[in-house]
Amino acid sequence: MHRKMPAGFGGRLRGKDPEPRDLAAQPTQYNGRWEIPTFEEVLKWQDEQTRKRGKQVWIYPETKHPTYFRKLGLGLEERVAKLLHKHGKDRRNSPVILQSFEPTSIQRLNKLVDNPLVVLLSTANSRPWDFVETGDPRTVADLITPKGLREMAGYAQGLGPTLDLIITKKADGSLDKPTTLVSDAHKVGLILHPYTMRNENPFLPAEYRKGTDVDAYGDPFGAFRTYFATGIDGVFTDNADTGVLARQDFVNG
After folding, report:
1. CA distance 154 to 66
2. One domain, residues 155 and 88
3. Among 194, 197, 198, 123, which residue's Cα sits nearest to residue 160?
4. Nearest to 162 by CA among 96, 221, 235
5. 53-107: per-residue pLDDT in tens?
6. Which domain does 121 fall in, by range?
7. DSSP string, 195-248
8. Last residue of some domain: 195, 211, 233?
9. Which of 176, 195, 214 is the last residue of a domain?
């Protein structure tokens, strides 16, 4: 017996905000409205948008929880590599940067494709989940030492560290001093794209917040300027329009 599904409820996954925040402006009203595209559909969309815009559109996909899926017999890296090969986007100059919070995932990808690869890094005292699973005692703090950076430079082209690894914060949430990560990483040829800049007050360093309204924007341009001044090569942001303008302002002085 087959039950007819209501209109709009097919078998494909639909998008939902994964991290509801205490913000009135959080768009949870869109939950379930749109289907989640497959990776191959994203690759085709990239080509369509490149033709439509007349300039190359890049994508920056991430292997999410690769150790978990590998234990289920669903190796993500092989599947990603197969599709990149199919679409001719597996080369060093291909407009696809691959990223992961698990260094072993990046190591696998390094053997399968020639794309630019980026290791994402959480807080200094955290351990990548693949390290936890294999009993590797190293933390992120170990990975960002000169020795750790040299090792990662052997299989990756860049790092995506949390912003606090670029500039630490004081107890009141204001910025303290830049670390040596930018210069240390650049010495071994790694680029840095830290995460995640947002415009709303709660996500900005204390000195760049305005008022007490958690829904209000603070001074993201000031915060962007401070982080760009450290020498980072790019930044992840939830507000791409702000990020592009802030970068233009910084470059133009």
Report:
1. 20
2. yes
3. 194
4. 235
5. 999 999 999 999 999 999 999 999 999 999 999 999 999 999 999 999 999 999 9
6. 47-195
7. B-B-SBGGGS-GGG--SS-TTSB--HHHHHHHHHTTT-S---BS-HHHHHHHHH
8. 195
9. 195
